[in-house]
Amino acid sequence: MLLKGLRDIASRQKWVAIAMATIVLGGILSVVSPVFLTLSNFQAILVQASVTSIMAIGMTFIILTAGIDISVGAILFVTSALFAQLMISTESYLLAFGVTIICATSLGALNGILVIRFAVSPLITTLATYSIYRGAAIHLTGAQNIPVPREMGFLGNGRILGVPVPILILIAVTILGIYVLNRTRLGVYARAIGNSERSAKETNLPVGRVTVAIYAFSGFVTGIAGLVLLARVGGLQSGIGIGIEFTVIAAVILGGTKLTGGSGTVIGSVIGAIFLVLIDNGLNLMNASPYIYDIVRGSVLLAAVAIDRYSAVRQRAALDAQRASLIAS
Amino acid sequence: MKKLLGAVASVAIVAATQVAADGITIGLSVDQLFESRVAVNNGIHAEAQDRGYDVIEVVADGDAQQQNAQIQSLIAQGVDAILVCAVDQNTIERALIAAKRAGIPVVAYDRDLPDSTVVQSFVGPDSLVDGRLAGEYTAAALAAYEGQINIVELIGALNDQNGIDRSLGFREGIASLENVNIIEVPTDWASDRALSGTQNAFQATPDIAAVFAATDTHIPAVETVLTDLGRLVPVGEEGHVVITGVNGSRDGYDAVMSGTADAFVVMGTEATGRTGVDLVARILAGETVERTNYVGGHLYTAADAEANAAKIWGAPK
């Protein structure tokens, strides 16, 4: 009965599947390592997942429109580089924060404009901007490491009422993402575009403006994530953000957002990111051989995708059966 | 797409660059740009300038296929010699063979290509010794430690010989310690992975006595974790976690000077770059050179780092 109930919920809310997988993985880890079920470890997991989760929230909107942004790691790098340089030259947090967030939002918007303007696959467009943004950041910094002021560590290490600041930022961005997706026209339009761009255009939805706004939103949250990451690692390094786009996209897909667009949730993407961190956390807690990390990560991802696919097939079969019985009656 | 960009870049380079007809031109093929690589490259440029050589530098951004195309373009431009830091030996070997056929000598720097049939000489760090220096320091610092000694090792890329050798050297260096438990954390040279891995390691094993970072650019991430846990105790005080690293970056220098880290092994980046050009010059002059040329690292602590800042490539100048 309980299983059937959970299955029904999972079929309606796709994020429940990844939530259940996360709980199962957590259960296994709590047996394997006594340290797992501690408050400090939970905090560590959420803090580690904060950067990917924040970026995944923005990516959710993009994938909802059946788009993709490969350049988010480069946006993270270029905005972090800009922040570090501005801090050196102006020593003004306000200016550095402001310009960095505006820059991140603008780079995201530029991606959206290029996707709409050239009507080329978002994958190709953002692959090109990935190269441009990353190159610009390397040029800006001369590939040098730039330490950030110690006070900035508050963003990465600080606590408010005992809660780590990265977790608070994650909660705030999650609430913002859920609100925008479920309570604003932007969210509704994003789903509509993902379901059918042609229908969206035929019903006079502002497809171009919505697409630009969504890529800009992703850029905005990536800028925030960049600042959190910069504060946590203590400085800018030229390798920052390399490959993070794949982790972010994996989190979104694991969270139940369809790559083909139209369906997905913010909370699912956040849980997807936490799930990915959980894998590393578990391997670290078990002091696993460094050579098996990639194998385990890949296998778990594959299993998660297979389970998701299996549940989708079952869901479709159930719907077909329901439809057949309705027709028969 | 990357291949296409690489080909376009190669054509542009061929079109834009005029190789000096009389002087010597070195083709510099770089795997990717980051702080210590730039420091070595600066040494190459400085030595080349001193000798009146031209340098054509191409950067592969970590893409072996792109590096392959770039080396082909350097050959097409008729460079006199190639200095290469390879992304991946197997992928570029074909291009290196083409260089050999064109009579262009190849010298590898920073990353050796031990199985290459083309590379005439290598100059770079002796990572085994660098790791051993850090290990011996750690062993001395923990000589009086009682009970099991838990050491976190932040490993570099698992397919990078320098990272592997630093790890092996470190283990040789701590061989005198007994009852050691090494907690390996793979980082792939990424500080965000070093950060999360260190955090997890301290969750699983709170009584960690030491951290060894394959690159000292990870030390600020270790500092973040220790700050989170309220365990950031300066060197020499009760409860201090012994921290060492290899590289010689500003991060390492600052960490040692602030008392967060104990010691760091500084690579001779400028000497590596200058030696690379010197090897090229000697090969072009028909001299026989050593196949392997190591530039030894040096361990510094807070006691001598500031006085030797000029020798530490990452120290503020």
UniProtKB/TrEMBL annotation, chain A:
Cellular component terms per the entry's GO annotation: plasma membrane
Q: Name one GO molecular function term.
A: transmembrane transporter activity
Per the record, membrane topology reads: Multi-pass membrane protein
Q: Where are the transmembrane segments?
A: 15-37, 95-120, 160-181, 207-230, 236-254, 261-279, 291-307
Q: Which domain of life is it from?
A: Bacteria
State the UniProt keywords alphabetically. Cell membrane, Membrane, Transmembrane, Transmembrane helix
- Subcellular compartments: Cell membrane
Q: What is its main location?
A: membrane
**What's the name of the protein?**
Ribose transport system permease protein
Organism expressing this protein natively: Yoonia tamlensis
From TrEMBL, chain B:
Q: Which InterPro entries does this entry report, sorted A to Z?
A: Peripla_BP_I, SBP_2_dom
Membrane-crossing residue ranges in chain numbering: none
Specify whether Signal is a keyword of the entry: yes
* Compartments in which it is found: Cell envelope
Gene Ontology CC: one annotated term: cell envelope
The answer to whether keyword Signal applies is yes
Domain Periplasmic binding protein: start-end pairs: 38-287
Family, per the entry? Answer: Belongs to the bacterial solute-binding protein 2 family.
Q: What is this protein called?
A: Ribose transport system substrate-binding protein
